[in-house]
Amino acid sequence: MNAMELGGAHPLRLPSVRWLLLLVVLMAMASATALWLTLQQARELGRPNQHADLWYVASVNSELARVRQVSHQLLAGEASAQELLLRLEVLYSVLDKTSALTSLSDRLHHQLPHTAATMRELSHHVDAWLHTLTPRPSASGERVARDVLSWADGLQQQTRMAVADVHVAVTEENDATRQSLHQRFVLLSALLAGLLLGTAALIRHLAQEARRARHLSRTLAQANQMLESRVAERTRQIEEGRQLLSFILDASPSDVLLIGADNSEVIFINQSLIRRLNLVAPPKHLPKSELLQDPAQCQQLSDELERYGEVGGMEALLGHNPPTWCSVSARLIEVDGRLSHLIWSFDITPHKRLEAQLRELATSDPLCGLDNRRAFLEKSTALLEHCRRHQQDCAVLMLDIDRFKSINDRYGHAVGDQAIIACANAMRATLRDADVLGRLGGEEFAALLPLAGERATRDTAERLRGAVEAIRIELENGDTLSFTISIGTTQLANRATLVEDLMIEADEALYRAKAEGRNRVVNLQPLRPRQFPEALAPPA
Ligand SMILES: Nc1nc2c(ncn2[C@@H]2O[C@H](COP(=O)(O)OP(=O)(O)OP(=O)(O)O)[C@@H](O)[C@H]2O)c(=O)[nH]1
């Protein structure tokens, strides 16, 4: 089935119908005209007195013959003058009628001038005879009869010829009329035949068109039905697919959101996200600011979507009450011709917790909770850099529990651990939040004190030593454990020195403190002169 068959009227059909219609109309008009003309002629032929002229000329001839006969009889004494007068009056009245007939007079004057002349001559004689006879019929009867007989032969001969001429003329006229009628009949027959053929062709054509239209209509109906069933099937499949997708997305542990890129109109939101946001029903609009807690992350999500069209695995706090750590991904897609943002996320709280635990494990000492060596070095390096940049002094302290081995040896490792924990807690409680304190290993600790000049360092170190010295641990055997620490300190003193170098210096001071009898603070004097700003200059 091609488009021509299915779409609209056939381009060749209408013009041919028009031509056929025009032909039929023209044929009908021509037939009507021919018929009208034929009828006119038939009416003309059917008019009364059409051939009366022949009858009257013949009557003139026969009446003239009677006048001759009465004239003979009058001269023979067998007829009266009154009878002759009567016959002449009859002849005159017939002649008078012939001249009154227009067709006859026309024909006589135009076609048969001899006959007209004969009639006029005869009228003239009859008129003269009547004028002679009428006043005194008996006196003039014989004279008139003789006069009639003297003219009668010639006149009779002429009227016979006139009869013949009129007869011939009428016959010819009838022949011409017959011929004309025959021709018109032939023409009318041809026109009627043409009309019949045209009408038949038109009917056949219209029937074909109707058949074709019915066929096309059936084909179209079948095609429509097929199309409708296909559309219905496809719609059903799409609907099933949509329901399945919706079911999968709702059952998914991930959050899924599809919103208009321009107005944040919600196109789809799954149950997981509705629950996560503590909503009772799907909202009409859900801007990203209501989705992400941090405005900066919200802006980042929008920017990356606009710039790259996608965002992958961005860690963000989702929702507000309470927020949940989620891995958020997004795509810029086109839905029904409009730009939309597809955002999906999944809860990474357990991962975050594990990560925090791992970070804790990686950076803190499992026994006492202080920073381990690595974390201490990281933090103190950053802090030292900060102090150097701002030309601020700071101190590095190395702290070591005195004769810790003997605690282990005497009370066991568990008590030794207790001592380490108690020492760490006491030191942490003594220092400021800004100070960095870490356990380097065993019973050895280190601290970095920002903004600490020599005196502040010595004072702080003394407070630390005193705090540890004050520790009392009640043991199960009833003994009370106390112990001390030795502290070695050194100052940054505006030098380009690494934390590790300062720790070596402080360790050297610690070594001296141990050597000088323990439970004391020893400060290692820096080798280079100090150049501090007035405000931060250590006291003399
Ligand atoms: N309980 C316990 N003991 C530890 C731990 N780490 C190291 N030690 C012990 O700490 C002791 C350190 O002893 P030493 O290095 O000889 O020093 P000390 O006995 O404190 O002597 P001085 O430092 O010279 O005062 C060793 O006996 C180690 O076994 C720990 O985490 N827990």
Automatic annotation (TrEMBL):
InterPro entries: Diguanylate_Cyclase, GGDEF_dom, Nucleotide_cyclase, Rev_trsase/Diguanyl_cyclase. SUPFAM superfamilies: Nucleotide cyclase. The chain crosses the membrane at residues 20-39, 185-207. Its EC number is 2.7.7.65. Keywords: Membrane, Transmembrane, Transmembrane helix. It is an enzyme of class 2 (transferase). Residues 392-526 form the GGDEF domain. This is diguanylate cyclase. It comes from Hydrogenophaga defluvii. The lineage of its organism: Bacteria, Pseudomonadati, Pseudomonadota, Betaproteobacteria, Burkholderiales.
